[in-house]
Amino acid sequence: MDSLALGVEPDPEPVADERSPVTLCVNGETVTLTLDHRTTVLETLRDRLGLTGAKKGCDHGQCGACTVLVDGRRVNSCLLLAVSQDGAEITTVEGLADGEAPHPLQRAFVERDALQCGFCTPGQICSAVGMLKEAADGFPSHATAPGTPPGGAADLDADEIRERMSGNLCRCGAYPRIVEAIEDVTP
Question: Which end of the chain has fewer CB atoms surrounding its CB within 10 Å, N or C?
């Protein structure tokens, strides 16, 4: 049944002034695209650039399957409008490897069998990369021990890792292995 049969008008085609050129540095390569202002970073990555690692899970920023790094910070790419990221550096799970050598977190996820269906894995790995940097930079979490000096690297025990990764859901329940994989690469 089409939208007209339901009494709903279809979205109009965007006009020229609803599109803008956007330049992004994605996994080290600069691309310039003309995008509808409503296009998200996730849609840009998947539909325009063919980078399908980040997944569209909930499309509401609640599951973390779409997590990528923007200027080194982890973000839910389903919530970010691409036009607002003009000039940003975006790293997806495809861009974490060093040539043919997987990123240490990618290797740890495989070695620890920290995945089952794999749907959430790219977002989990990107989130873990961002989380490790946040902890090293001294950003506290709810689980950070009271009295921890501000600005110092956080001690990443299992409770701290679980708290910091709580925005990434795994439908299969591979959480114990995910935590172990992250522990394997913590300094």
Answer: N
